[in-house]
């Protein structure tokens, strides 16, 4: 099973600042890396798929990069609605795993 | 638009069974694979099971293999999760999610809470 490790666990930032979230895989996942956002009491929302492709309706301030085992989600300038928990996910050999999440909180 | 509505959650004793349903609308249900994902209280997301569009191929997380069964009725646009031999650690909100083969889980239901407790 491929394990995804996200860092940091919590990111304390102010609106307007840049957020950089990391996701590391225990073995290569090629570019099959997906990011989701979850707000309290809500279902997750698809943000980025295949490492760097924004899902429908996702603002351009969200971007993804990386390959192999190291991936990054960047939020260029945090808006108030971006404070949430972010999860990375991979799919490999018909098994899917999530990282443990990074909480982006207001400083 | 796409709607996924889970039902069937509740409080159940350890060792008992429960069946969850997910009613789908707004897309051609029979053309897409579907997932169950769960989230224990205060915890992260855990993939549970996947069923391909035709229903013949099914995949499970090790934590539920042999106890849970995913199925679908394409004539009723409904996904199911039969959960047997439930344990306290199965307590979670269970979400169904539509699979986009290229883009991941593009639509999610609102979730249904399962509590396993004596």
Task: List key phrases describing it.
heterodimer; A: 107 residues; mainly beta; seven-stranded mixed beta sheet; four-stranded antiparallel beta sheet; B: 118 residues; 11 strands; 0% helix; 53% strand; globular
**Which residue ranges of chain A are poorly predicted, with pLDDT under 50 across at least 5 consecutive positions?**
none
Overall geometry of chain B: globular
Q: How far do the termini of chain A sit from each other?
A: 35 Å
The overall pLDDT average of chain A reads 96
Protein structure class of chain A: mainly beta
Order of helices and strands of chain A: EEEEEEEEEEE
Largest sheet of chain B: 7 strands, mixed
Q: How do the strands and helices of this protein lay out in sequence?
A:
The complex is a heterodimer of chains A (107) and B (118).
Chain A: E1 4-7, E2 10-13, E3 19-25, E4 33-38, E5 45-49, E6 53-54, E7 62-67, E8 70-75, E9 85-92, E10 95-98, E11 102-106
Chain B: E1 3-7, E2 10-12, E3 18-25, E4 34-39, E5 45-51, E6 58-60, E7 68-73, E8 78-83, E9 92-100, E10 104-108, E11 112-116
Parallel strand pairs in B: 2-11
Antiparallel strand pairs in B: 1-3, 3-8, 4-5, 4-9, 5-6, 7-8, 9-10, 9-11
Give an overview in words.
The complex is a heterodimer of chains A (107) and B (118). Helices cover 0% and strands 53% of the residues of chain A. Chain A has strands spanning 4-7, 10-13, 19-25, 33-38, 45-49, 53-54, 62-67, 70-75, 85-92, 95-98, 102-106. Chain A is mainly beta and 107 residues long. Chain A starts with a strand and ends with a strand. Chain B is mainly beta and 118 residues long. Chain B has no helices and 11 strands. Chain B has strands spanning 3-7, 10-12, 18-25, 34-39, 45-51, 58-60, 68-73, 78-83, 92-100, 104-108, 112-116. Chains A and B meet through strand 4, strand 5, strand 9 and strand 10 of A and strand 5 and strand 10 of B.
């Amino acid at each position: 099973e491929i394990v995804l490790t996200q860092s940091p666990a919590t990111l304390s930032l102010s609106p307007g600042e840049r957020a950089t979230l990391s996701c590391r895989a225990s073995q290569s996942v090629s570019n099959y890396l997906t990011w989701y956002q979850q707000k309290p009491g809500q279902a997750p929302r698809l943000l980025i798929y295949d490492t760097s492709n924004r899902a429908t309706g996702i603002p351009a301030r969200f971007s993804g990069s990386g390959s192999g085992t190291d991936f990054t989600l960047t939020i260029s300038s945090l808006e108030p609605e971006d404070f949430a928990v972010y999860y990375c996910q991979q799919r490999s050999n018909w098994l899917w795993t999530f990282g443990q999440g990074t909480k982006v909180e207001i400083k | 638009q796409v709607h996924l509505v889970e039902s069937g959650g509740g409080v159940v004793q350890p060792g008992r069974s429960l069946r969850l349903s997910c009613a789908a609308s707004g897309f051609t249900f029979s053309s897409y694979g579907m997932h169950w994902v769960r989230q224990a209280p205060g915890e992260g997301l855990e993939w549970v099971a996947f069923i391909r569009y035709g229903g013949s191929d099914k995949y499970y997380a090790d934590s539920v293999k042999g106890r849970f069964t995913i199925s679908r009725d394409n004539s009723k646009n409904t996904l199911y999760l039969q959960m047997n031999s439930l344990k306290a650690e199965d307590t979670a909100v269970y979400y169904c999610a539509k699979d986009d083969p290229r883009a991941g889980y593009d639509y999610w239901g609102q979730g249904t809470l399962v509590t396993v407790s004596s």
